[in-house]
Amino acid sequence: MFSVRRGVLIVLSAWHGLAAFKNLCDLGASFGIVPAAARWRSHNFAAMEKLLVPLRLPRPVLGTLLAGAAGVEAAAAIAFARGDDELGYALAVGLFGSFALIDEAMADYELDETHREILVFVLVAYLVTRREKPGNSPP
Questions:
Q1: Residue 19 belongs to what domain range?
Q2: Residue 137 belongs to a domain
Q3: What is the CB neighbour count within 10 angstroms for residue 23?
């Protein structure tokens, strides 16, 4: 039987999987490894370059950071697909919470707004899909 809970988890899995794919395409295109991947790129690498310019990080370090984010997104997608929603939510909240903190630290409030919106979306989805554990009923 299909439920709202299962539907939300499917959407979260697909969304995180697509985000990971687009970020990997962005990396492939940005470094000239897979130029054809530019069609599917996320443009997050360019956003990271712009955001972190004061730190003067080498491009390979930025690429490693984006690859790590894509890895966390892929892991969240797999967790949601397998029904391990606690792990999926922990990964998603950790990732987008970190992004919001970095945006705040670098004073990029336009990017911060996007990451906060995604974080709120994930937290609302958590409230919609969470299961009450025996003995943990709300007051």
A1: 4-129
A2: no
A3: 24
